[in-house]
Specification:
about 90 residues; mainly alpha; 4 helices; about 65% helix
Length: about 90
């Protein structure tokens, strides 16, 4: 029974992890893409990559997606900015 509970809790922890920026689809919206939007998209994409790494490490070490729980997940903002400007150029 303990093994089953541990398996379920690990799966729940993995589901709550931050989504990698390249897996986030853009949400179409009517706003124009500005230079500030492109700069903000680059910044939050970098922060999202760090959140993904932090979540993976947190789940591995303590079983908790630390970055997502502490507000490090920027999935919604990335989806809006991608819908407005497209994927960031790397």
């Amino acid at each position: 029974m303990k093994r089953f509970a541990l398996t379920i809790s690990m799966l729940a922890g993995l589901v709550a992890c931050a989504t990698p920026p390249d897996k986030i689809a853009g949400v179409p919206n009517a706003g124009p893409c500005t230079q500030a939007d492109r700069e903000r998209l680059a910044i939050v994409t970098n922060q999202q990559n760090k959140a993904v790494t932090g979540d993976a490490l947190g789940v591995f070490l303590i079983g908790v997606p630390v970055s997502s729980m502490s507000g490090g997940d920027h999935e919604t903002e990335i989806a809006i900015l991608k819908g407005r400007c497209g994927a960031p150029k790397t």
